[in-house]
Amino acid sequence: NADSAMYRAKEAGRNNLQVFDAEMAAKAHQKLLRHEELRDAVTREEFVLHYQPQMNLKTGRIFAAESLLRWQHPERGMISPGEFIPLAEETGLIVPIGDWVLNEACRQNKAWQDAGLPPIVVSVNVSARQFKERNWVARVAEVLEETGLEPRFLELELTESLIMQDVGTAVATMHELEALGVHLAIDDFGTGYSSLSALKSFPVRRLKIDRSFVQDIPRDADDMAITGAIISLAQKLQMQVIAEGVETQEQVDFLRASGCDDIQGYFISRPVGAAAFVALLAG
Ligand code: C2E
Ligand code: MG
Ligand code: MG
Ligand code: MG
């Protein structure tokens, strides 16, 4: 009857709520564990940088590399940044992690130069939390000083969303960084919301065209149009332009014909460990 149906429904609802609560608690607990694990990873230095070459389309020369963070987990193996950077940002652990990355990238680049390899620029991804730290510019200067790397061999990648959170402050910080002599790039360009009028006031050397525009070239005419437009925009603003996520010869051909300066992507190499990168650079 209706009453017992109601009773059963209420009972089921209560059970669902209990299940829901238990699931939430389990998730919260798991997150706490992951936070602790990540915090320990910082002190145990379980991180490693991989390097992905960037090639100039005119000379065919590898002139730079992007450093990409990996977590070497003692049990779970190599973990990619997409899996732990969001938690690191949420918990603020990105600050010490980012500091480690900056130092390691500069140290490694200087070591390569000291070993007699052709000098390259190494770029480092910067998170919003890190960029907003009060003494961050001083910290960059300190790392360069300590590692002995000349500032012109360091590039910092900022995203549009990072800059647009507070354009005024970001542009001021960017000018301070530029004054140090490091280079700046806008990462994932085209996916954020930077206004074109703001863009011209950014002291950046180059734009990195987001992989999402590159991946469907030459199948997607719209993506080709957008990519072409970003290239002309960069040229007109006298910025360098690099395409990310380049995987095929057709993409290379299109980018070259469109006047793109440089490319990065699996077409040249996946991100690789330092030793493998040396082989790429030397060979
Ligand atoms: P990102 O800075 O845009 O880096 C490019 C990503 O695209 C890398 O993923 C790279 O492995 C991948 N990629 C490069 N070429 C190709 C290609 O041809 N095809 C495809 N399908 N993918 C390609 P990864 O290493 O997983 O890094 C993901 C993101 O994590 C980075 O995107 C960056 O936003 C963030 N990240 C990486 N390292 C750091 C770091 O040290 N600090 C911070 N704050 N973020 C980092
Ligand atoms: Mg990047
Ligand atoms: Mg990118
Ligand atoms: Mg990205």
TrEMBL record:
Highest taxon in the source lineage: Bacteria
EAL domain boundaries: 31-283
Protein name: Diguanylate cyclase (GGDEF)-like protein/PAS domain S-box-containing protein
Source species: Rhizobium herbae
Source organism phylogeny: Bacteria, Pseudomonadati, Pseudomonadota, Alphaproteobacteria, Hyphomicrobiales
Stretch of the intact protein here: 487 to 769 of 769
